[in-house]
């Protein structure tokens, strides 16, 4: 999770939204990323999507052995990617500031672990307080 938090901090330092993610296979990070919607003017580069993109093409068998670490509960788009690629385990930094599609993921057999990490909560609470319009844009409100 520390690598995902590092990514979230990097996103914030770049002027973006502090959400980070890493895709891990066999104890090795295949891809890391952070929300780059602001930095790239993107509609889809959430932290999880950026980590998947940076991992590059993988065989289906690799995804089925991966864990995805993300600082915030995955939204519908990112949850869809998790399901599409058959990622079996997601470790979530926190879901207090935003609860994504956790029920859908669990219903489809994805193992979730929610840490309620103090740093993840602080990053998002501060960001939402400072930039509510940008946050609402990011989650489609």
Commentary on this structure:
This protein starts with a helix and ends with a helix. It is built from eight helices and five strands. Helix 5 links the parallel strand 3 and strand 4 (89-92). 45% of the residues lie in helices and 18% in strands. It has helices at residues 2-13, 37-40, 47-55, 60-63, 76-84, 102-107, 118-130, 132-138, and strands at 20-25, 28-34, 66-70, 89-92, 111-114. A five-stranded mixed beta sheet has the order 2-1-3-4-5. The protein has 141 residues and is an alpha/beta fold.
Summarize the structure.
The chain has 141 residues and is an alpha/beta fold.
Task: Provide the succession of SSEs.
Answer: HEEHHHEHEHEHH
> Structural class, from helix and strand content?
alpha/beta
**What general outline do the C-alpha atoms trace?**
globular
Mean pLDDT: 96
Give the radius of gyration.
14 Å
Q: Provide the spatial order of strands within the biggest beta sheet.
A: 2-1-3-4-5
Q: Helix proportion of residues, in percent?
A: 40-55%
- Which regions contain 5 or more consecutive residues with pLDDT less than 50? none
Oligomer: single chain
Q: Count the strands? A: 5
Largest pleated sheet: 5 strands, mixed
How far apart, in Å, are the first and last alpha carbons?
Answer: 28 Å
- Indicate the proportion of strand residues: 15-25%
Number of helices: 8
How do the helices and strands line up, and which of them pair or pack?
Elements: H1 2-13, E1 20-25, E2 28-34, H2 37-40, H3 47-55, H4 60-63, E3 66-70, H5 76-84, E4 89-92, H6 102-107, E5 111-114, H7 118-130, H8 132-138
Parallel strand pairs: 3-4, 4-5
Antiparallel strand pairs: 1-2, 1-3
Helix pairs in contact: 7-8
């Amino acid at each position: 999770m520390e690598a995902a938090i590092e990514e979230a901090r990097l996103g914030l330092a770049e002027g973006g939204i502090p959400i980070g993610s890493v895709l891990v296979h066999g104890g090795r990070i295949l891809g890391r990323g952070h929300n780059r919607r602001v930095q790239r003017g993107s509609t889809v580069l959430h932290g999880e999507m950026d980590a998947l993109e940076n991992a590059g093409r993988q065989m289906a068998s690799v995804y089925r052995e991966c864990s995805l670490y993300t600082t915030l509960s995955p939204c519908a788009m990112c949850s869809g990617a998790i399901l599409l690629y058959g990622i079996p385990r997601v470790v979530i930094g926190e879901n207090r500031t935003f609860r994504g599609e956790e029920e859908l993921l669990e219903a489809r057999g994805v193992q979730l672990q929610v840490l309620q990490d103090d740093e993840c909560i602080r990053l998002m609470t501060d960001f939402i307080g400072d930039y509510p319009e940008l946050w609402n844009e990011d989650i489609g409100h």
